[in-house]
Amino acid sequence: MLRALIFITLIGALALMVLSLLRRTPRTPGESSRAQDDGGEPLALPAPSALVGRALSHSTVTQFLHELAFDTLLAPDVPAEQSKIVTAVVSTLDVAATSPRYALRRPLLLPEVVRAVNDSDTTRRELAKLIARDPALVGSLLKLANGPIYRRGSQPIESVERALAVLGTLGVRALVAAALVQPVFRQSSAAAAKFPEIVWEHTQRAAAAAEMHATSVELSDAFAAQLVALVMGLGSIVVYRVALDEYASRALAPDPTTLASLVDANTARIARQIAASWELSDRLLEALEEQRSADDAPASSLGRSLRFGRLVGALSVLRSHDRIDDETGRAALAAAGGVGERFERLWARLALPPGVEPGFAPSRNTAATS
Questions:
Q1: pTM of the predicted model over 0.85
Q2: Residue 255 three-state SS
Q3: Residue 36: phi, psi to the nearest 5?
């Protein structure tokens, strides 16, 4: 009996030693990928293999978005006779990013608002008064706050103070940045109105998706992610306008395939030049530089959030215009890393058709155009 007790005691002690050693064993890098945030939701969930197989490629999503913006199918390659246009546009773009004719100078109110938001001593009323100094900004901000992308509740937001109360300082800071750059997307002729309109939709959604990725996956600066997404949208508009002017100077009709190719090839470069002229930080410049190659994965957390935001923003625009079905969009979202309840809610909000209020989206069963 005594021997049995001793044997059991030794076995128990040995088990405790093994458990202790296991607890001290360091994790491999891959084991930390399911870290939890304060809400208990995994920060990065792997996409189900079935969804990865159904996801659209990045290049396909970009092509579909351009075809929506130009309202036509694109040719496989840029026509040979367009080579002189391409050369002239690329040459002009070297100076266009800082030209008042094409690019937006850094909004004067933006640094002041950002400083006020980051200052813990700034009261809500003081911030509201600061924003109210620009009536046009107030109107744009309230319109955005009541749109499906930013709106958080069923009650309309009718004042800056109400927006601050509902959205919080981070949400209002994002809205101010968007409202300050929005006029650039409106300065277009009626004949070319659709492209800026689609780019603006894409830019808003990309900023919201980049913010979510930065917050939930990268644990990085959410506002920086929103800001670089806005600057990327500005880059697209600058490239587009330079190209239209080049066509007009030659009395030629714009070629959609050439325009799309120019936008793809030059947006990130011009966005970085705009950001540099605004004296944004090296961290933001690096994130924009990383977007120049669609084949290389960004090395920085901000670059990854921007890449994710741009892709998901494009998917949601395509869904909202019935160019892809919901299952296709969700598969691509999951394959990009947008898995979990937070991203489900984000998709439900971003994929609403333009002008539809949250909670009132019509049912749609359109098949994917893949």
A1: no
A2: coil
A3: -100, 145
Of 138, 181, 178, the residue nearest 160 (C-alpha) = 138
Burial of 143 from C-beta contacts in 10 A (0-12 / 13-18 / 19+): middle
Q: What is the pLDDT of residues 116-148, one digit of tens each?
A: 766 777 777 787 888 888 777 787 778 777 877
Q: Give the least confident one: 27-41, 222-236, 284-298, 309-323.
A: 27-41
CATH code for 41-107+189-350? 1.10.3210
**179 within 8 A of 146, measured Cβ to Cβ:** no
Q: What is the dihedral of CA 87, 92, 96, 102, to 10 degrees?
A: -90
Question: What is the DSSP annotation of 12-24?
Answer: HHHHHHHHHHHHH
Question: How far is the C-alpha of 339 from the C-alpha of 337, rounded, in Å?
Answer: 6
Tell me if 270 sits within 8 A of 97, measured CB to CB: yes
